[in-house]
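Progress report, Aim 2. The chain analyzed during this reporting quarter is listed below.
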Amino acid sequence: MKATMISRHDCSARDLDDPLAPLRQQFDLPQGVIYLDGNSLGARPKAALARAQHVITAEWGTDLIRSWNTAGWFDLPKRLGDRLAPLLGAGAGEVVITDTTSVNLFKALAAALQMQASDPAHAARHIIVSERSNFPTDLYMAQGLAAWLDRGYQLRLVDSPEELAQAIAADCAVAMLTHVNYRTGYQHDMAVISSHCHAQGALALWDLAHSAGAVPLDLNGAGADLAVGCTYKYLNGGPGSPAFIWVPAEHQARFRQPLSGWWGHATPFAMDPGYTPADGIARALCGTQPIVSLALVECGLEIFAQTSMEAIRRKSLALTDLFIALVEQRCASHPLGLVTPREHARRGSQVSFTHPHGYAVMQALIARGVIGDYREPAIMRFGFTPLYTSFADVWDAVEILRDILDTLAYDIAAKRDAVT
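Predicted structure tokens for the chain:
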């Protein structure tokens, strides 16, 4: 469909034919808001309120400590991990939902480095490869771990995906990459890069923060070695909801992580003063779980169970194609620069445009009810969550953007909020 042929009527007609459209009713979306920031914080499933009330009033309020057994609190990280696993292309017993993405990345990277150091053939490798544009916490955790270990580990950063093949060389221990870039929405070919890592004797560690629930994943099929990610973006688990870590069955016996808390112990209630790691994925756990927020993660997963990642991906690409076409048609006279790949295989579920006054424009959009977000340098991010974003939403968002740009209805002196 050419951009000149698109009308709001066309978008509304697509909504009528959208098989995912009924799922929108399972989210509590504010009136007058077009929410295009699900790539940062997913919308609230309506079921989450009742779930939180039940956990607080009945499981905590009435059953008290008995709920660790009677309500299944103790097994919740593994049970929810098994519910999430199909969305990741993982097997049962390979995922736990726990801790934060940063903490899980620390565990996974430490385990990967330990696995390499314990192999005489790879013990001399001291390079961790990543991208300069990777999400900063990933780089910070790698820098902190390398300095703390004090064994000569170095972080080698590349400035483009094309440089990865050369950077992941015979001295590389681990490639630590984010599958979908948080700024641009660029999506790596996980299978190709993981295969290259193995050919060079390196391990492939993937951050799925902008992939899980957004694009189809096949961790086992792609040959990944370890992965982490969050549940509060496309998975709609709630603000600060626990993250996840994936350790494939083939690596679990060798998986050792330094945060050896009691939940990762083989028999935590034996109260043994010596640490013995649990068998399987439980060894990726650390301390006592935040049960209220953990329980809410299931509400989002229950909605995903009503569709497929293939259907979600089809709509995601249709929404992002439409947004790009409409912006380029209706805002062509303005200094907007597309930084998200047009190629479907290289695009996640977001679209990012630059503008010289990107922060001010985004603040004006938010004031008009179109909620996206801003990332340096000068990037306006728009996330498209197929479970609740409509095609009419896309039209209306672009129309408001066009009006703001045409009328210069934004304040270039707008004060920066703490969270952008």
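The mean pLDDT is 97. The radius of gyration is 22 Å. These observations will guide the mutagenesis work planned for the next reporting period.
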